[in-house]
């Protein structure tokens, strides 16, 4: 589930994860579990408001320069990711 994936990632990031901003998708319906188990506040962006997630949008733009949309990340080698 998305909750489990976020919890696993949060455990790897430890104290580097300060907040989490997500959309209103059903995959984040269990956001309270993430907040409770990680101590990280979860915020919700408004629909059709990418400016509320500026850092995320910028990061996606940078990634798309190197990884075309639709290309599975699993197919990338470690050297391509570094």
Protein model, in words:
The chain is 45% helix and 7% strand. It contains four helices and two strands, in the order αβαβαα. It has helices at residues 2-13, 31-38, 54-66, 78-81; strands at residues 20-22, 42-44. The chain has a two-stranded parallel sheet. α1 packs parallel to α2 (31-38).
Q: Which terms summarize this structure?
A:
82 residues; mainly alpha; two-stranded parallel sheet
**Sheet with most strands:** 2 strands, parallel
Overall tally of structural domains = 2
Q: Over the alpha carbons, how many angstroms does the gyration radius reach?
A: 14 Å
Distance between the termini: 27 Å
Helix/strand structural class: mainly alpha
Q: Please estimate the helix content.
A: 40-55%
Globally, the shape reads globular
Secondary-structure element series? HEHEHH
Mean pLDDT, all residues? 84
């Amino acid at each position: 589930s998305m909750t489990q994936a976020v919890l696993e990632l949060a455990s790897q990031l430890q104290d580097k994860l300060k907040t989490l901003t997500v959309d209103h998708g059903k995959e984040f319906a269990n956001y309270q579990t993430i907040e409770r188990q990680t101590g990280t506040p979860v915020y919700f962006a408004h629909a059709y408001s990418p400016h509320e997630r500026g850092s995320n949008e910028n990061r996606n733009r940078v990634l798309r320069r190197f990884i075309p949309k639709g290309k599975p990340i699993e197919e990338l080698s470690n050297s391509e990711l570094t």
